[in-house]
Design goal:
By secondary structure, this protein is an alpha+beta fold. It has helices at residues 10-41, 47-71, 92-108, 135-140, 162-166, 232-240, 252-257, 281-293, 326-332, and strands at residues 44-46, 77-81, 87-90, 113-116, 146-148, 152-160, 174-181, 184-192, 197-202, 206-207, 221-225, 245-249, 272-275, 279-280, 297-299, 313-314, 318-321. It is 35% helix and 23% strand. The strands form 5 sheets. It has a 6-stranded mixed β-sheet, sandwiched between helices. Strands 12-11-13-17-15 form a 5-stranded mixed β-sheet, with helices on both faces. The chain has a two-stranded antiparallel ribbon with strand order 1-5. It comes from Carassius auratus.
């Protein structure tokens, strides 16, 4: 008699296969999930490397800004009106600089959050950072400053002072990168494309810029926006007197550098930087980090620290100072309401 065989129907075969898959899943799912969790936990970034990358991104973006301005191929457009009614410009310099800066950082560290003023829908750059750290950073900053990638937010401004850029007021123009960790500005880079100068600061570690020897806060020189001014003149005069010297200037990056030791003959100098209207975080984060690295402060007009995580908006105005009693300056300011500026 021929031996009896076991025959499975198609349904039985399907059930058997599913059972097998289920067994394999239960055997390996736990191992796989634990390895994924372990991998995620190990995704850290060395902040010294991120400082060097930020400098390279600002310089590469700056080259595009300078080239397009010198070639006079701005292709100027308007993004609309600001809350103060001024036209908000957009040029090819903004867009090309954005592509260079954004993709250099994102291609090197795809796991970190990068926020840029521009969001051009264009093909990404293939550039990846060489991991070469400039000697000036190696000399001042030791390595091993690693933080979880998920705690990092990078803010980039591909072209600060676009209005002035279209007017060929080159001294105001900068490209900027800021690295925030858990919302705190830690690394700031401000690059001047038309002079090639780059300022940087790393909070708690060092900087390549220095404050001036002294500042006058009794009768200060106050630097303010020339194109997004709002009611800043009357606000400043109420705080510091009708004879206060007010310096209108373009670009938040330029205005922060005005609080430091001058980098060139064209750089204005001021004792305090005040802004009373809406401003974006990519405009101010780099300057905030540099000032903090030197013991200075940048707060809202009510003296509150600015959180560089979450939304792009800073609605609380701005007061920046260095080597002064910042809290005392806040107390001298008149009552402030954003919707009245």
């Amino acid at each position: 008699m021929a031996p009896m065989g076991i025959r499975l129907s198609p349904l039985g075969i399907a059930v058997f296969c599913l059972l097998g898959v289920g067994v394999i899943y239960h055997l390996y799912a736990g191992v796989l999930s634990s390895r994924i969790a372990s991998f995620r936990q190990k995704r850290t970034v060395d902040l010294r490397e991120l400082l060097a990358l930020s400098m390279e991104a600002a310089v590469q973006g700056g080259r595009e800004v300078k080239r397009i301005r010198e070639d006079n191929t701005l292709e100027e457009k308007s993004k609309g009106k600001t809350k103060e009614g001024a036209s908000e410009k957009l040029t090819l310099g903004d867009l090309n600089s954005h592509r260079k800066m954004f993709y250099l950082i994102k291609n090197t560290y795809p796991e970190i959050q990068v926020n840029s003023e521009e969001q051009a829908n264009a093909e990404g750059e293939a550039t990846v950072w060489t991991h070469i750290i400039p000697e000036e950073i190696l000399a001042k900053i030791s390595g091993g400053k690693e933080v979880p990638a998920e705690s990092i937010t990078v803010w980039i401004d591909p072209l600060d002072a676009t209005q002035e850029y279209t007017e060929n007021l080159q001294k105001y123009v900068t490209t900027m990168v800021c690295v925030a960790v858990d919302g705190d500005p830690v690394i700031g880079v401000i690059h001047k494309p038309f002079t090639g100068y780059t300022a940087w600061g790393f909070v708690g570690e060092g900087s390549n810029v220095v404050p001036r020897a002294s500042y006058n806060t009794n009768f200060p020189k106050v630097i303010v926006s020339r194109s997004h001014s709002g009611k800043v003149k009357s606000f400043v005069q109420v705080a510091f007197g009708n004879n206060t010297e007010i310096i209108p200037a373009g670009g938040a990056g330029y205005k922060v550098l005005a609080l430091l030791d001058p980098t060139d003959e064209e750089q204005d100098t001021a004792d305090i930087y005040i802004h009373v209207t809406y401003i974006k975080k990519w405009d101010i984060c780099a300057g905030d980090a540099i000032l903090r690295s030197l013991g200075g402060e940048m707060t809202t007009l009510k003296g509150e620290q600015i959180d560089y995580s979450g939304t792009e908006e800073n609605k609380g105005g701005l007061l920046a100072s260095i080597k002064t009693d910042h809290e005392a300056l806040v107390k001298r300011l008149p009552p402030w309401e954003e919707n009245k500026q």
